Amino acid sequence: MHKNPIKALLFDLDGTLANTLPLCIQAFRRAVEPLANRILTDQEIIATFGPSEEGTIQALVPTHYQEGVASYITQYEQLHALCPTPFAGIPELLQHLRNEGIRLGLVTGKGPQSTAISLRYFKLSHYFDFIETGWIHGPRKVDGIRSILSQWPDINTGQVWYVGDAPSDILASRQAGISVVSAAWAETTNVEELRALQPDQLFISTDAFDQWVRSAVR
95 by DSSP, 3-state: which? Predict the structure, then answer.
């Protein structure tokens, strides 16, 4: 029996529910390079992350913003076969949590269009009571977390956890006043960066996370 059973979980999407980061980078490259008329490195693209993809387009090709966003969404959907499934065990775990009466939310830095595409592609939309997406002007995960928490006034924040793969997820969770699981199972994750920030829990496999969370909700 967990000393303070979890009543609600908030999930990140990219790198947490599925290995979508390579898909994002490839979609940005195909959408932006023809407009920028130059080659983009992975590092250059990743350096713009934080805002939604609209913010990335604004940073990389501000004079072709509307065209860039439309092209990105098209490329993202067309290339989604690069990431055909969520991480192993994630759909089954979400179903188990729903069966146990655990409330679930999604707080992602992705924009609303790409979030909807991926959730539809993975058939995960129905698991989440609330979905908060990113925005063009910068990171808003703290606001997204707080927005969902306000919908659950009957749940103590000590019984809500965020699950995300980035150092910024640890910082956002702390600022919002909830515990955090570092999801270190994606090949794109820098495990040592996460460990350095001392998250409440860190797992390098979905199996280990699955075992922990099933016991923590009892």
Answer: helix
- Packing angle between helix 53-60 and helix 21-36, nearest 10 degrees? 30
Task: Please report, as a single letter, which amino acid is at residue 67.
Answer: E
Query: What is the widest separation between alpha-carbon atoms in the chain?
Result: 58
Phi, psi of 176, rounded to the nearest 5 degrees: -85, -10
* Burial classification of residue 200, based on how many CB atoms lie within 10 Å of its CB (0-12 exposed, 13-18 middle, 19 or more buried): middle
Report pLDDT for 120.
97
- How many percent of the chain have pLDDT more than 70? 99
pTM of the full predicted structure?
0.94
Which residues are registered as beta bridge partners of 161?
A: 9, 179
CA angle 199, 205, 209 (to 5 degrees): 60
- Could you tell me if 84 and 22 are in contact, meaning their C-beta atoms sit under 8 angstroms apart? no
CB 152 within 8 A of CB 160: yes
Cα 53 from Cα 109, distance rounded (Å): 8
State how far the Cα of 205 lies from the Cα of 64, in Å rounded to an integer: 40
**Residue type at 33 in one-letter notation:** E
